[in-house]
Design goal:
Helix content is about 35%, strand content about 20%. It folds into two domains: about 30 residues, no CATH class; about 70 residues. Helix 2 runs parallel beside helix 3. The protein has four helices and five strands. The strands form two sheets. The protein has a three-stranded parallel sheet, with helices on both faces. A two-stranded antiparallel ribbon has the order 1-2. It has about 120 residues and is α/β, with parallel strands linked by helices. The longest helix is centred in the N-terminal third of the chain and has 14 residues.
């Protein structure tokens, strides 16, 4: 069953509004992790963008390593400034540069590992 702001529906009429298989997987993953909820995304960039957008607000700051996934790097450095969020790109593995980039406005540090 999918809940909407106007009430409950008792059927699935369109996959974007709810999917019983996906909802079952989300419930099971949440239970495995001991979490209240779980959200599955159709692609990695959807998950990345949703996480960044839901965590940041105007005046925020993100640190990202220069070897991050190209589209994540683009999103952080070119799209997030439209929302008043600044970023600092630091060389991967340069922990001193990462430490120096931290400000009181830093909300997150994004880095990836190939291993």
């Amino acid at each position: 069953m999918v809940a909407f702001s106007k009430g409950e529906v008792d059927h699935y009429e369109y996959g974007r509004y709810g999917n019983p298989t996906r909802e079952a997987a989300e419930r099971k993953l949440a239970a495995l992790e001991g979490a209240e909820r779980c959200i599955l995304f159709d692609c990695g960039m959807s998950a990345v963008c949703a996480t960044i957008l839901s965590s940041c607000s105007q005046g925020g700051h993100i640190i990202i390593t220069d070897d991050a996934y190209k589209q994540t790097l683009h999103f952080v450095t070119n799209i997030m400034p439209r929302f008043g969020v600044t970023s600092t790109v630091v060389p991967m593995g340069d922990y001193k540069a990462m430490e120096n980039a931290v400000t009181p406005a830093t909300i997150m540090i994004i880095s990836e590992s190939s291993n």
